[in-house]
Structures are given as structure tokens and as C-alpha cells.
Amino acid sequence: MKLSEIKGILPTLENVEFQLENGTLVPEHFHLTEVGQINKKFIDCGGVIRDEKAVNFQLWNADDYEHRLKPGKLLHIISLSEEKLGIEDAEIEVEYQSDTIGKYDLEFNGKVFILKSKRTACLAQDACGIPSEKQKKNLSELAGNQNTSCTPGGGCC
């Protein structure tokens, strides 16, 4: 989800709620401790130089049970971040504490924001010699020569 998308969704909500993919809700008294832009410049294993930008939200579960982040307040924080930091309209990456700091993509299911697990991947599979995914075939669909096929009790195996 891009920053522009969340800015369009927030005015339609009464509350800001986040949920992990497994259904676990982020406690409603979470704090949004950071909004920023992450710029990542790197070289992949195929030698291609890449630039990535993401808008970063960091959620923190505090013992402040009276705290609730309302949609208007989040919109204000986003606006301030755009004005003061020059944040661009990029994909949102959410940091949230699990065993370590977890990084998540963000989606919206019509009611709550879903923290979607991120996965690593090779960006230069053709340069690394990683074969493309093989097409799966059903053995019963393979046309075989009956003369070269083994049969039970045929003595060929």
C-alpha cells in the first residue's frame, strides 16, 4: 500500500487498527513512534545497482492503555512528515516488534490494516544460475511408449 492510499482510507475510519496475517491484533493502545522514508541503495548478486524507497511506520506496544491513535491524528503525522521530511508517495513498510523487529508490507481489508509478512528473494535469478520454476506435470498425463514402460511383474525393474 502506498502512502497516498492510506491517506485516502483514513478519513473513512473511526479507529486505526492493525492486525497480523495470523489474525492477532496489534493492541489498540499501540504508539506510532516513527514515520519516515527509508532510502536503500544496493547492488544485487547479478551486479545491478538498485535504489529503493519506502515510507516507514514503526508501531510500538506500550503499557499506556489509555492511548488510542485516531485516523485524524495519523493523517496529521503523515502531513507533517511530508512537509518536514519531504516524504514521497512510496510503498509503506511497517516495523513491529516480534522476536526481533519485524518488517511488514501493508494492506487494508476494508476494516483493519493487515501487516503482511515480507519475504527475501533473489533479484537476479538469471545471473545467479537459479533455474526458473519448473512446470509441474501430472505423471498420468505424460505420454510414454508402452514398449519401454515397466509393468508389475515384467522383470524390467
From TrEMBL:
This is Uncharacterized protein. It comes from the Bacteria. The lineage of its organism: Bacteria, Pseudomonadati, Bacteroidota, Flavobacteriia, Flavobacteriales. Pfam families: DUF6428. It comes from Chryseobacterium wanjuense.
